[in-house]
Structure formats: C-alpha cells, structure tokens
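agent> fetching stored inputs for the fe (ii) ion docking request
agent> found them:
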Amino acid sequence: MFTRRHFLSTGGTVTALGLAGAPAILKAQSWFLDYPFKLGVASGDPAPDGFVIWTKLAPEPFAPHGGMPLSALPVAWEVASDERFATIVAKGETLARPELGHSVHVEVSGLEADRPYWYRFKLGSDRSLQGRARTLPRPGAPVSALKFGVCGCQHYESGLFTAYRHLAQEDLAFVFHYGDFIYEYRYDYAYDKGQPVPKVRDHRLRALYSVDDYRAHYAQYLLDLDLQAARARHPFLSTFDDHEVENNWVSDLVQNGDVPPEIFALRRQAAMQAWYEYMPVRAAMIPRGPLITANRAFNYGNLVAMNLLDTRSFRTDQPCGDGFKPHCPGVSDPKASVLGQAQEAWLDANLGRRDATWTCIAQQIMVMPLDRRRYADEKEKILNLDSWAGYDAPRNRLMSRLGKIDNAVVLTGDEHQNFAGLLYDRDKPVAAESVVTSITSGGDGQDVRPGSDTMLANNPQLKFINDQRGYAVCEVTPEAWKTHFMVLDKVSKPGGTLSRRATATVPRGSASLSIG
Ligand SMILES: [Fe+2]
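agent> prediction call returned; pasting tokens
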C-alpha cells in the first residue's frame, strides 16, 4: 500500500529478536523513519463552543510532499479538559490529504464556553506534542477582562524568534497575527555600520513561486521551536499581509517588475494555498482560485467585538507608483478602495451593531496619515502610499463611520515599529490606533530611530514611537483599553531580554490616549 522508502510498515508490528524475556512481537515504533509531527501543532479561530486544531505531517519537511506517501492518511485527534488528558471531551479521526500537503484542520465544537482545553494528534504510534486552546465567552456574556497578544512581521533571516518564546509564556485568550508570517525573498548580504556581516540565519530558498516552494518555506519557519511554542500555547487569529505572497502586492497586481496579472494570479494562488495549509483556520477559508475570505469577526462576550480585515486582496493599486512620497492626485481618487465593496459593506454593518463595549479593527496597514519626514532637507510632507494614507476616499469613509461609535481601537502591523496615536474625522478624534512592531523584521533596532523627534513634532496626533522588536499585549476592561508594547533588547543573538517599553491607555467614552 505504501511504497516510499521512509514508510516502514503498515502492519503495526515488528518481530523482536534476541531480547531475552521480551515478548516475541513488539508494537512498531512508527510508520515513518522520522517523526511526522516536526512542524508542531496550533489552534485558532476560537468560538464559544470550540476552535480549530491544526497540524501538518512532514517527517522530511523539505522533501517532496514533506516525505509523506501519496495518499490520504487517517490522523486521530483528541481534546481534553485537563493538561494530563485524564478527561477526553472530544475525539475523532480526520484525513490528512496530499492535496493539502497533509495538513489537518479539525473544527472542534460542542465544548464549554470561556475555558482552556488541551489537544493532541496521533498517527500510527506517533503522537504530536500537546497544544492548549481556549474557547471564547458566549456572545453578550458579561466579561470583565480580556488579555490578548498582537504580533507579526517575522523575517526569519532578520533575527531569532525570541519574542515568540516570551509570547508563549504570557497568559492570553488568543493572539492576533497581522501577517508577514513568512518573507518571500532572501537577503543576499547584511551590513552593519557599512561593513558586510554574517546574517543571523539564512532562508533555504531565494525566491518562492510554486506551492512546493511556499510549503517548504513555511516548514523552515515552523521548525523554529520558539514559534511552535507560541502556536501550541495560544489560539491564533491569523491574517495575511503582503510577504505571504510578494512585497506590497494588492489585488492582482505585483509591485516589483511587470508581471502580467494572469501570471501573478498563479503565484498568488500557490501562496494562498500554502498559507491555508499552515494556518489554524476554518475550512471556509480554503482558497477559491487566489482568493481567501479572510475578513471575519470575533466577539469576546460583551467586552470586545473584533473585526479582522484583509487590506490586500481587494485594494486598488497604490497611487503614484507606491513608496514614501509627497501627496499626488492619485491619493484623492474618489474611486480608490482599500477593502473592496463587499468587505467595506460587511465592516460597515458590523460597526453599526453595538454588541460589545469596545470595537476593535484588527488589520495590517497604518490608518494614521502620518507625515513621514525625518530629515530637515525634506521640504514636502511625505506619505506612506502603501498605507491608508494613500487612499483618502476610503480612509475618510472609515473615519466618518468611526465617528459614529464610541470606544473604537485600531490594531495595525506592517511598519516594523511601534506607534500609538489618534485617528481623526476632520478635527474630531474618533479612535486610537496602536501599530505593533515586528517579531524580527528590521533586526535589533533601537529605542528611537533617528528623526523620530521630527515625526512626533510634525504629527500632533502621534503620541509614541519605538523601533525595537517584540509584540503587544492588549489588556481590556470595561473601563479602559491598554496596549502594552513589549520589546526585546536584541534579536540577533539568543537570550534577548523582554521589557514593557510603554503602555497606551484609552479610557472608555473618550477617543483619547495617554502613554505611560
Ligand atoms: Fe513586514
């Protein structure tokens, strides 16, 4: 039945010879020459009665098909109400299919709301490590506190995943991942103070085009045990940004070179398939062609309504050829769109409901239209055209909607720095935005990047800038939303020390921000 060289036996037994006193027949240790659960486990997209549990079989992660046979294999799973698996509350078997790279996505349901669970997988006699997941409170249930993590932008070559080791030790209900889970290119060299220096570590592949390229690339990231630790410990709410496909792509348009849309669509489809295979998300997110419906909502009782956005798939082209540039006519194009019509209508409807005290928009690109000037010789105001700042019409629509609701917070990634500030509808503050730094992208960094004083002076709505690596922890109560910016002193060497660099506090009932 199974003929690949690494696939030993389907009989489940081997004959033991020469072991005095041992039984004549022993159970086989494994179907495989190597351990099939090397890429770890994960959970995600929690609901009040369950969550997704994930793994991917790959005894040889960089071999074709991860070293798996060309057939679907049954994987057993179980969920327990205790860490020792004394009480199994749900179990079953699911097929790991070669079409999906032998990934496993089980949508567990029928569980109790608002509590932790533990899960694990088994294939033959091989068992995965165990993960911990957590259900959400019921919609509308009175909730007095929520703590969750925010992270993303994890270029493997730029640093070690130390931040994930620390994130794994936090007490969190879930983690929002804003994207750039992988980077699709390899740095050819690294500099420090003008001198060539060794990179912290190397991508195996220099560029990614086929689904097998993307699959192998995710495998390289997930062989990092710090990343595995965080995914095994917390349910993730996963979204993607640009580098899951290609730098600064939007819709069916590449930004680097003149690749025809129909050719780029093939690469995007391969990238999206690999993204789906590796993320703990529901089957509703299987790509249709190159499209994944990634916008979705999560309610945490009566405390927080989370709206996750996709700011890449439906966006109109960046104006004026993209980049950091002065305002140009394209920025005020009334037909420009960031979310596309359907997603914008969906967000509009969600923002119109008042299900919870706090409304959170969890997305990728900065909403504050900051003046990016850092140097005295820059005369004209400069915008990041790949952010909402390059899209006046949709940004103004979003601001006017936020102006109609209380207690709105926007969470953002992409910038590889921490920022906290306020969003305005004309001259009225309507929400607070916390831009969360990268896990590694940008390298060690520094507390204050040169020119940050100029940026703070030029942007009165901006209250905080920091240029170190790490993640954020949001601590929410009915009275206040606190975003703690957690930073590492270094990611270039093991043993980075974590500290809370600052906390941005938004009080209930006022679109204001204090930094402590
Ligand atoms: Fe990034």
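agent> quick read of the result: The longest strand covers residues 498-507.
agent> awaiting further instructions
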